Amino acid sequence: MHNSGTGPTVAELVPERAIVLHFVDPQAERSVLSWAYDLAQVGEDATRLIFRFKLDAAPRWVWGLGYPLLVEIPHFVMERKMLLGIKERAETPR
Q: 68 in the Ramachandran plot: left (φ > 0), alpha (ψ -120 to 50) or beta?
């Protein structure tokens, strides 16, 4: 994700089903950010993409106050555009 070679690691990969990415804080030796993309069959010829994002940063009270305003709103805009782009590509006949 970054030209320095740093970024998330693949924590779980289920081919044609799911991928989970973690960004680990080397100082805390724990996952700080995670992204999960999961495909769920919802019909004979329909699939739903479920996206989950998790942030576990310290100190939690600071992130609890600042996250909704500073991160959540722009993150929502970015995620929505990303998911609409995926939807468009998935539904475009080849």
A: alpha
Give the CA distances from residue 4 to residues 7, 8, 23, 27, 35, in Å, rounded to whole numbers and listed in that order.
9, 12, 15, 19, 20
Question: Residue 11 carries which side chain, given as an amino acid letter?
Answer: A
Q: In this structure, are residues 31 and 17 in contact, taking their beta carbons and an 8 Å threshold?
A: no
Neighbours of 21 (CB within 10 A): 18
CA distance between the termini of the chain: 28
Checking DSSP bridges between strand 30-43 and strand 9-14, what pairing results, if any? Answer: unpaired
Chain segment 75-85, per-residue pLDDT in tens: 889 889 988 99
Alpha helix stretches (DSSP H) within 2-51:
none
Strand partners, 55: 33
**Of 8 and 6, more confident:** 8
